[in-house]
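Sequence only, no structure available. Ideas?
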Amino acid sequence: MMRKKSMKWLAAGLALLMAAGLTTGSGQTLKAQASESSQGSFRVLSLNVAGLPGIISSSDPAKNTVKMSPLLNEYDLVSVQEDFAYHKQLISQVTLPYLTPTSGNVPVGDGMNFLSAFPLYETQRYKWNDSHGFITNGADQMTPKGILYSSMEIAPGYYIDIYDIHTDAGTDPGSMAARESNLKQLAELILQKSSGKAVIVIGDTNCRYTRDKIRETVLDPCGLTDIWVEYMRGGVEPVFGSDALIDEENRNSAANEVVDKIWYRSGKNVELSVDYYALKTDFTDEDGNQLSDHFPITATFRYELKENVLTTQTYGGGGGTGFSFMEAMGERMPEKIAIRTGSRVDGIAFTYQGEEVSAGGSGGTYQELTLADGEYIVSMEVCKAKKSLTSTYRISYVKFVTNLGNVLEGGKKEKEVFTFRAPEGYGLAGVHGSCDSEIDRLGAIYLRLTTP
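Reply:
I predicted one. Tokens follow.
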């Protein structure tokens, strides 16, 4: 959760935390509850702010960045790219309460940030595996461009995984190959980290359907929909290999494709739909000049919350790769749970109708608990500890308790304990978080009970 800029928004944020059962201090509890309002909407905006240092920027950021700042307050979620040298000016008049901390100027920062009306959790940055061109061909090796991830809580117990991206620029063979690699890396991350979850990808993709294999590399593998294609073209994509679609007479037409994109999908407990999309050609100064070398794109999302599944934020360290049992669990409680533990938690596995889904490594001592008919998990306790002074925190202890009083626990218990407790009428059916050879973070997934 990031900066709060006013007492009004601070109070709203605290109200959300209290409603979700989130407390702080030793013996903390994390639980989720169904939201009182099952439907709503929010507006998103994506803008490449052209915030490179003035001497190398293609815009006039020293003059224009501060003029963009108040315009961002009309939206509930804003993703920006090239937010480098003028970050203070960009946020100087922003009243949105949750902002990701900037990663810095060129050459250390990636230029990507979120500004949000909703709480943000678990923010992580991922550098592209491949990039091409230092001075020429897009100069993509000048900064650690990549992916910015956050988990956005739109209501207590309901999260959307959001990804801000800025892929390799240029149309030379090296840049094209790097950009295709970027999209595949994004798809792999979504498949691992966001299984079963609602997802919004929003940013400067440097892609055009006429030259990039967008559908094959990321949309189809991740089940994503392109809002511009859906809303402006009735679902019909531009033909690969045809001329670029550029209509400067009517920028908001089906014949004008921009490289800024919004892709999305629904999740198990958040249904997303779109009823508006536009290129915002009014981001101009008093003389009608563009404030950036990109016009921003915007969309209005509508959401419907499904009360059968609830989730929580996660607890632990900052390492590992994301995972989620949400897709695998479906509408089922686990029939067996297993852990591998030593001084830390090496692995966790849940079995659903004979099929096991697991996270973490194969080290540690194996223990399992087979659940009886009508038995389900009511709570999960976790602790965190560092493996060494230089490492990040990892999950050091886990304890599952069922409604029949059975317990499965292992690892080393610390003074601070986080408890994930299922709300009334729900059982803990799965977990999500991040892991490598050990479990780095853990959160709970709750499923509504079918019988009292």
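The helical segments are 7-19, 61-68, 87-90, 173-193, 214-222, 227-232, 326-329.
Hope that gets you unstuck.
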